[in-house]
Amino acid sequence: MKNIKKCFMLAVCIFTASSLFGQQKDWAQFGRYAEANKTVKTPSKVVFMGNSITDGWWSTDSLFFKTNGFIGRGISGQTTAEMLVRFRADVINLKPKAVVILAGTNDIAQNNGYIAMENILGNIISMVELAKANNIDAILCSVLPAYEFGWRKGLEPAGKIIELNKMIKAYADRNKLTYIDYHSRLADERGGLPEKYSKDGVHPTLDGYKIMEEILLPALKRY
Description:
Elements: H1 2-24, H2 34-38, E1 46-50, H3 52-60, H4 62-68, E2 70-74, H5 80-85, H6 87-90, E3 98-102, H7 105-108, H8 117-133, E4 137-141, H9 157-174, E5 178-180, H10 183-186, H11 206-220
Parallel strand pairs: 1-2, 1-3, 3-4, 4-5
Helix pairs in contact: 3-4, 8-9
Protein name: Lysophospholipase L1-like esterase
Pfam families: Lipase_GDSL_2
Keywords: Signal
């Protein structure tokens, strides 16, 4: 009888602990910008939605954002699904005139498991449709080149990135959206991000970001 009671109590403890963990886990990381969002003066100019490339952009060249009145809302490691979930909190509620969406690298890297190309595009399209419904102009960006992911090797991402970029551009063209092509300017002969623009082949250095700014700024002058 004592053993039965012990087993029961152990099961209750495990269930309680797992439930608390599930409640505490902020999957889409709403908490990352929760406080910062409260201080944003609305309406804002332009919000940058993305992953570590957008996140690192702010830390590498924050003057670019501050000088132009742009807001960075990138979170390292995020896939398009996570960005879509937090799109209302980190974009719509800030009431920007435009949103710059740079997404897809971590989907191809399978950070949350395999996802088909059409579903990656679908998540991006859903962000665009949410933006449109709230009178926010959506600007779509090409995924940056990458020959290999250091944290998940063997996926051969270079060709997959090119394929996804073609899909994003085709959608942008059909819907008369601005498409920003970083890939063509930054890619080397292998379809990767060269050492002169990146230390790890994925994330840009300041020189890489400066080229991206040069490509992007003309499209943002109206804002």
